[in-house]
Amino acid sequence: MSETATATPPVTGTDTSNPKDHKRQQTDAEGEDEPNNTPSQAAKKQRTDTPANTEEEAEPQQQQQQQQETARDKDKQNNDAAASPRSAEIEIEADAAEDKGSRHSMEDAWVVLPDATLEDFPANLRCAHFAIYDGHGGRLAAEYAQKHLHRNVILAGLPRELLDVKVAKKAILDGFRKTDESILQESASGGWQDGATAVCVWVLGQKVFIANIGDAKAVLARSPAADGLQTHTDEVSPLKAIVLTREHKAIYPHERARVLKAGGTIGANGRLQGRLEVSRAFGDRQFKKVGVSSIPDIHSFDLTDREHFIILGCDGLWGVFGPSDAVEFVQKLLKEGLTATALSRRLVREAVRERRCKDNCTAIVIVFRQK
């Protein structure tokens, strides 16, 4: 059985399970954000027209209403500021680990970029990017996405100065589409039919965006509202595990309907055309006309002192770890003072050596630390 491999950020994963032989490759793409849940803005107020006999009677009522609205807006701004600390006060530490398990080869690829700013795309907005690409049928699609998705999202217009939620979402969608189109062209000319699922994270300023296709998952560890900065103390409450992604498999109703509408079939084994387990992926050229899509689900949230870490994992990891189980495992090690490198390595080692994961196993642990 292979040893768990890790890398020091910013690097991208390569095909090996031995840390000493693990070749590192710098990605040439920059991280992005994609907010789903935009910060709440002051609600638009509707002015009610009350009958008034004279202008003198209406004017005091309007002035009083305006004063009340102003007071409410100020209170809301203060509450928002208290709930969402500035991103500069939160540091990001992350690393990846991988093991090929019982498989003959490693088909996963990954990206760890705590600082994902590109030289040819200068920016004032803090940007970090992390991703796992789980290949099937080979690793060519995973490697292509590893090298090109991030840059494609930036070229599609990812905000780099001022965060715009709608613009960021569109950039991620367009980046996924462009990457898949290029993979299909490459696979057609090269005569290969590999596919890859993906789970990606972008941190822009204090906003975190998650995009996924397939069955790779992202799980957030969040503390109760009252715990705040007590994350690393012995008295800390158990962190809540929040699954940030949605699996895309043909057996699920929302995917089944889409696949059948596209002309695909679902076999008795629950697989698309009786062969492919996932219904969304990069590549898979032979399945694109029967329902396989590369359109990601995108979610977002504000980064506060309640968010402690995110675990990204391929399906091999989540086959032996439940979300709450993984969060509890990492939280205990985090309380012992372990680094993100050690956390990811221990997580994968536990999955493969102790819990007998037979599949390729890759994990990224992203830790948020208060300055």
TrEMBL record:
Q: Which organism is it from?
A: Turnera subulata
What InterPro entries has UniProt attached to this entry? PP2C, PPM-type-like_dom_sf, PPM-type_phosphatase-like_dom
Biased-composition ranges, Polar residues, are 1-17, 36-53
Ranges of biased composition (kind: Basic and acidic residues): 18-27
> Which residue windows does the record flag with biased composition (Low complexity)?
60-69
Spell out the molecular function terms from Gene Ontology: protein serine/threonine phosphatase activity
Query: Which stretches of sequence are listed as region Disordered?
Result: 1-91
Mind telling me what this protein is named?
PPM-type phosphatase domain-containing protein
Tell me the ranges covered by the PPM-type phosphatase domain, including all copies: 93-368
